């Protein structure tokens, strides 16, 4: 039996993967060729989607980008036997974009059937949980501390310290919450992981539950990800059926339940306290801290709340050990960060590298420059609250400390490329406008400041008292940065200020 | 006037979910899934079941962009307005779409066929501009591709009728 892989990933399907799968199935039955189609996750090489793979004795052979209209020609050329022809890319593992990565989180992405517990286990899955089940809770927390793992959601807070706080609270109902509200434009690593290897996240959350004594977990998933929702629900059901969730995990007598809950289109719910309010069934209004969620979290109980990639990383840390994880990266930025190449980029997708490579090499060697072929004007790293970097600043090292030193933010690893046609005043205005739309409204600098920000930028665009208004905008940015309750209002000035600083010509300067 | 929704179905949804911790969002999702929106007439029953005030329930519905308190068009077409899509032409696509459908973003076309909605990121940022119709995301949507997608909606509708 021939096995053909056609991704079920959102981007692959947005480029026609369902039609490709259907065409392959139809064509095969017409030609009396016995083949099965596995709907895998994506390898994350989105510019090659739909990437069709065929299992051969030498390994998987790739073809792409395939459209449904190419399928007959692929059969004519004997693709199902791994033969060369149009759209042939050779062995998947040898594609430089993939070969030159250091995949930890995405090691199984696109390789396994996302829903299959057996496939997951055949590729190292649940080895970490087996190890953790034999350890004392404090030893599990110590291993996470030792790995140096930091939160991948943006703030980069050491995960082990958060876990220790929850571990140290008296025994009571505790919770593990996964922040899967990946709302930053230019980011899709969480989505790809949940669609390609959801059991990695489920395993990581189970280990977190063992570490801190939590018996209930929630994955808070944004409603804009319907495919990830389908995959997660099916993967959770399969993990329960295989005995890896519930009251007796892998026969250990330990208990951990996990369910997925949907958000409802509010960007602010990516902020952890707002997310907890939303999970409780309320408006997603930001809470003042302290108390920290680790002490007073979901339903007032001690709660570990981490990003998808943070919790998923725990699976690999326990499979291979903290020392192995720590051996990757630079300084206090340990492990790998899946960078996401997006926007005006020729070869967009996931590039998982150890911390410390350069942004320019990422954009040129992996990304291949802009899609339009024009020069890069600006790159926004870290989502809508991240700074715009000009071409001259692109040699920066990809690690948390280097970005902080440059008044920028690595955040969740999203990289959005703009070519020279971009108008940076419009981008600054959009940053304020986005804050108007998405502010929870609790604090004044964010709620009112953003509205005034749009007006002031409009005045600058129209040349009304330009110099005075630039000073006013700077003051407003100060008020928002230092007076807001959370990062929404506090970081909106980053894209605005960086646009003014690096591209004064777009502001009439 | 008969309500546009099935009260018995709504009551079932509330009964099935009301014991869940944090039940309000799951209930609202199910109601919208069933009725296409969250009718104001359902608010008192939800409030009673969850021991909340009607104002609290209304406050939650109005906070989240995903929940609609009025009936929507036959198709919901969402255009991504976020940065990664802007970098490859989303601003132009938005202008084209609003002109083509003679409908503002956030409004429903005069014939009731299409509700045009803004969305901030669909996670398809490597292959924008992105448009979502129903639950299906479409990549690399040029103005021409947008017109083709809209025409397909009309064609599919006719095929379903015949």
Describe the overall structure.
The complex is a heterodimer of chains A (509) and B (162). Chain A has 509 residues and is α/β, with parallel strands linked by helices. Chain A has four domains: 2-95, Glutaredoxin (3-Layer(aba) Sandwich); 117-326, 3-Layer(aba) Sandwich (Rossmann fold), CATH 3.40.50; 340-418, Roll (Ubiquitin-like (UB roll)), CATH 3.10.20.600; 424-507, de novo design (two linked rop proteins). Chain A contains 21 helices and 16 strands. A five-stranded mixed beta sheet of chain A has the order 2-1-3-4-5, with helices on one face. A five-stranded mixed beta sheet of chain A has the order 13-12-16-14-15. Chain A has a four-stranded parallel beta sheet with strand order 8-7-6-9, with helices on both faces. In chain A, strand 12 (336-343) and strand 13 (349-354) form a beta hairpin. Chain A is globular. The N and C termini of chain A lie far apart (66 Å). With 162 residues, chain B is of the alpha+beta class. Chain B has two domains: 7-63, no CATH class; 75-161, Glutaredoxin, CATH 3.40.30. Chain B has seven helices and five strands. Chain B has helices at residues 7-17, 24-35, 43-50, 54-63, 83-86, 90-101, 143-161, and strands at residues 75-80, 107-108, 114-119, 131-133, 136-138. In chain B, strands 2-3-1-4-5 form a five-stranded mixed beta sheet, with helices on one face. In chain B, strand 2 and strand 3 (114-119) form a beta hairpin. In chain B, helix 1 packs antiparallel against helix 2 (24-35) and helix 3 (43-50) packs across helix 4. The longest helix of chain B has 19 residues, at 143-161. The radius of gyration of chain B is 18 Å and the shape is elongated. The mean pLDDT of chain B is 94.
């Amino acid at each position: 039996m021939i096995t053909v892989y056609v991704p079920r990933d959102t981007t692959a399907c947005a480029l026609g993967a369902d039609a490709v799968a259907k065409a392959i199935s139809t064509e095969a039955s017409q030609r009396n060729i016995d083949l099965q189609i596995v709907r895998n996750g994506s390898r994350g090489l989105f510019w090659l989607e739909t990437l069709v793979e065929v299992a051969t004795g030498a390994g998987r052979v790739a073809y792409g980008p395939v459209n449904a209209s190419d399928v007959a020609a692929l059969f004519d050329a004997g693709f199902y036997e791994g033969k060369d022809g149009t759209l042939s890319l050779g062995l998947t593992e040898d594609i430089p974009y993939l070969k030159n990565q250091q995949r930890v989180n995405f090691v199984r992405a696109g390789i396994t059937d996302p829903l299959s517990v057996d496939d997951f286990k055949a590729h190292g899955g649940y080895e970490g949980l087996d190890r953790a089940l034999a350890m004392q809770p404090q030893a599990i927390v110590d291993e996470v501390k030792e790995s140096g793992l930091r939160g991948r959601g943006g703030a980069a807070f050491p995960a082990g310290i958060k876990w220790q706080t929850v571990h140290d609270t008296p025994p009571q109902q505790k919770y593990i919450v996964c922040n899967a509200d990946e709302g930053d434009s230019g980011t899709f690593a969480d989505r790809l992981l949940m669609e390609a290897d959801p059991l990695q996240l489920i395993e990581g959350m189970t280990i977190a539950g063992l570490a801190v004594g939590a018996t209930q977990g929630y994955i808070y998933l944004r409603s804009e990800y319907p495919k990830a929702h389908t995959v997660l629900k099916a993967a959770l059901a399969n993990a329960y059926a295989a005995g890896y969730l519930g009251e007796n995990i892998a026969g250990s007598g330990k208990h951990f339940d996990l369910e997925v809950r949907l958000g409802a289109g509010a960007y602010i719910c990516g902020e952890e306290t707002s997310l907890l309010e939303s999970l409780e069934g309320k408006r997603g209004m930001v809470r003042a801290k302290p108390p920290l969620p680790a002490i007073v979290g979901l339903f007032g109980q001690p709660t570990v709340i981490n990003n998808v990639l943070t919790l998923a990383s725990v699976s690999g840390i326990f499979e291979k050990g903290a020392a192995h994880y720590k051996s990757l990266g630079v300084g206090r930025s340990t492990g790998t960060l899946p960078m996401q190449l997006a926007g005006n980029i020729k070869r967009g997708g996931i590039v998982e590298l150890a911390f410390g490579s350069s942004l320019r090499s990422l954009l040129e060697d992996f990304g291949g420059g802009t899609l339009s072929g024009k020069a890069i004007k600006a790159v926004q790293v870290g989502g809508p609250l991240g700074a715009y970097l000009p071409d001259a600043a692109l040699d920066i090292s990809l690690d948390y400390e280097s970005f902080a030193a440059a008044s920028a933010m690595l955040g969740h690893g999203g990289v959005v490329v703009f070519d020279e046609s971009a108008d940076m005043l419009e981008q600054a205005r959009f940053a304020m406008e986005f804050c108007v739309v998405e502010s929870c409204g609790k604090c004044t600098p964010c709620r009112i400041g953003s509205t005034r920000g749009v007006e002031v930028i409009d005045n600058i665009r129209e040349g009304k008292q330009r110099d005075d208004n630039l000073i006013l905008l700077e003051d407003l940015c100060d008020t928002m940065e230092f007076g807001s309750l959370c990062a929404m209002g506090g970081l909106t000035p980053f894209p605005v200020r960086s646009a003014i600083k690096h591209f004064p010509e777009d502001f009439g300067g | 006037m008969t309500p546009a929704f099935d009260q018995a179905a709504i009551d079932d949804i509330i009964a099935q979910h009301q014991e869940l911790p944090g039940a309000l969002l799951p209930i609202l999702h199910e109601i919208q899934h069933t009725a296409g929106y969250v009718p104001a007439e359902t608010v008192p029953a939800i409030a009673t079941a969850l021991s909340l005030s009607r104002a609290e329930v209304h406050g939650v519905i109005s906070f989240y962009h995903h929940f609609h308190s009025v009936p929507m068009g036959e198709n919901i077409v969402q255009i991504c307005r976020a940065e990664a899509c802007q970098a490859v032409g989303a601003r132009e696509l938005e202008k084209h779409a609003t002109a083509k459908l003679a409908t503002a973003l956030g409004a429903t076309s005069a014939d009731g066929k299409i509700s045009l909605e803004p969305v901030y990121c669909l996670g398809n940022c490597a292959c924008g501009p992105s448009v979502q119709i129903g639950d299906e995301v479409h990549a690399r949507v040029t103005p021409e591709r947008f017109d083709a997608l809209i025409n397909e909606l009309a064609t599919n509708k006719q095929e379903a009728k015949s």
